[in-house]
Amino acid sequence: MSLDLILSQPEITILGPPASIDVQLDIGPQGIRGNKFFSGVGDPASNPAITNVIEGDFYLRTDPSGAGYLYQYLASLTGVLQWTVVFQLDPVIYNARESVVFDAGEGTLVIPIYYILGSFSQTINLSSLQVVFSAEYDKPVAISLSNRQKINSDVDLELTFVGMEYNAGLSSWVDLDNAVTINASISAITITDDLVPPSS
What we know:
The chain is an all-beta fold. The chain has one helix and 13 strands; from the N terminus they run ββββββαβββββββ. The longest helix is centred in the middle third of the chain and has 5 residues, at 113-117.
């Protein structure tokens, strides 16, 4: 004899997510804003339009006498916040090709500082200048840069060269006594200590 077993479940239960989820978030207090870039004419410390600055903000000068100087609002060694030049976007590079007349082995080349910096109101530290030069002459010559100085009330840069030429007839080197074409490239190798923008 056999028994037939029949299982029956008339209800089906489907489990799923709740109908709604309530999540409460705490965003906390408002933090310090991010750094801003300002731009304007003149030194940022004396520009009345530059207000509400915080440490790390940047300022780009746009006036012709100081164009390209990038400042940042930083703490000094004493902890005082101040605008500090951190970079110059326009590199200081000047190229010249000049005839230098040597007398008794010495010749000078005078270049207006305005030609190098592009401004009458800027100053430059001579120790920062990198001078690279080559000579064009019809005989072998040995020339070196012996001195650099500012002259004429710091308006001009004077480069002093000493040189010798090889005299084939004498089979020896003698003081250079002639005009030599000098190709010079002048650049400033650092910014914060050596290039001082105008104060206004």
